[in-house]
Amino acid sequence: MLRLTKLSLAHRTVVLLLCLLTIGLGLYSTTALKQELIPSIDVPRGRVITTYAGAAPDVVEAQVSKPIESAVKAVDGITDVTSTSSSGVSQVAVQWDYGISADDMANKLRSAIDSIAATLPANIDPRVMTGGTDDIPVALLALSSDEDLNTLSQKVTDTVAPELRGIPGVRDVAVSGEEEHEIVITYKPSQLESNGIDPGTIAQMFAANSTAIPSGTMRTDSANLDVQTGTSYSSSKQIADLMVPGTDGPVRLGDLATVKEAPVTKTSISRVDGRTSLTLSITKTPDANTVTVSHAIAKLLPELEQSLGSNARFVTVFDQAPYIEQSIHDLTVEGGIGLAMAVFVILLFLRSLRPTLITAISIPLSLLIALIALWVGGYTLNILTLAALTVAIGRVVDDSIVVIENIKRHQSYGESGTGSIVNAVREVAGAVTSSTLTTVAVFLPIGLVGGQAGEIFRPFAVAAVVALLAS
């Protein structure tokens, strides 16, 4: 500390330029920092969910859960794997070490599962699900209109969702509340019996022919014709016209059963002011600013309402931005009040304006340096980092008060010039340094803790420690 004091006194212009540079870079960091409610955390857990319709639990375990479990265990970084098998569903829970990106781990898990795809039952699709705080929706919107739900759903799929996904920072837009339809086939037992047809034969026919598979190209003298095996169905009439082999020849499916299109039974309903609506859940990319994305969504909504017409109206059900902005505003106001009170107390006891101003300058400089460190480290401005800066306000000023008060004491003895400053600093350098390092030693271990606690409180520790060291 004494060497730093001598160096500063010898190069005052350089110190002034460094202070100006710190102020400029600090103000830039303040605007560049992402604003979030809580720190971004990748939860080191995931699931592989597989649906195997009609299979008993023991079959699901033997043919799906065990092979997937063995495959994901071989992935580097995996620490624990457990599985749960029930009727028609396999769930494999996976845990891995902290510090590994959830997206990177999801890609590794998918690659491991793809490597054993040939050994798994046909027509199953394992889904890898990972997540973190970035999966919390930035906004939940409810959309209502005078149009019927089918038409509105189609417009949302064709126009609204793509427009929202085009906003910088938006990762995905999930739409729920859509009216889905299914084909219901109700057999006529008497007709099946008279034609000697087993219902299981019809189910196998659908499984074998419901998907169009490319089967090559047929070349002629005048053209090349693409060949496909099987077909896909787009209406209940096409399905009713299917011919089913019977004992006396092919029979039309519509004569064996009632085939009709019906809405799928709803498990959830979305309404706005009593009107049926669709719910849009919007998530952001990990590197996006929550507040910026939220404001961009709000700015786009009037245009979307106008393009949809039919008295379409968006209602914001949930939005992170107001909570974040209010938290930042409250902590900023409280921090400002703390800063003002600290300056007032210094002025009250030192009874001199010049040392008070010098001491007061050290507070924002220390905080700006802490903000620069947060920006360089890739952290965000959230309630924890703001709390750390608020706590640091009262502590960073202590060193300045001790040093300035000792300088005034030496000058009261008749000393003057740089000699009085060097002598005063020499006397208290050890005490001030040890005091600061002691406080740093309290906060530093918080940032070195592993696991989920470390992920949450590390930004708090970084902000507090850097602010204290900068003082």
The radius of gyration computed from the alpha-carbon positions, rounded to a whole number of angstroms, is 34 Å
The dominant shape is elongated
Mean pLDDT: 78
CATH superfamily of the largest domain: Multidrug efflux transporter AcrB transmembrane domain
- Roughly what percent helix? 55-70%
Task: Give the domain tally.
Answer: 4
* Annotated CATH architecture of the largest domain: Up-down Bundle
What's a quick, concise take on this entry?
The protein has 471 residues and is α+β, with helices and mostly antiparallel strands.
Structure overview:
The chain is of the alpha+beta class. It has four domains: 150 residues, Multidrug efflux transporter AcrB transmembrane fold (Up-down Bundle); 91 residues, Alpha-Beta Plaits (2-Layer Sandwich), CATH 3.30.70.1430; 98 residues, Multidrug efflux transporter AcrB pore domain like (Alpha-Beta Plaits); 60 residues, no CATH class. The chain is built from 15 helices and 15 strands. The strands form five sheets. Strands 5, 6, 13, 14 and 15 form a five-stranded antiparallel sheet that branches. Strands 2-3-1-4 form a four-stranded antiparallel sheet, covered by helices on one side. It has a two-stranded antiparallel ribbon with strand order 7-12. Strand 10 and strand 11 form a beta hairpin. Helix 11 runs antiparallel to helix 12 and helix 13 runs parallel beside helix 15. The longest helix has 32 residues. The protein is elongated and about 125 Å long.
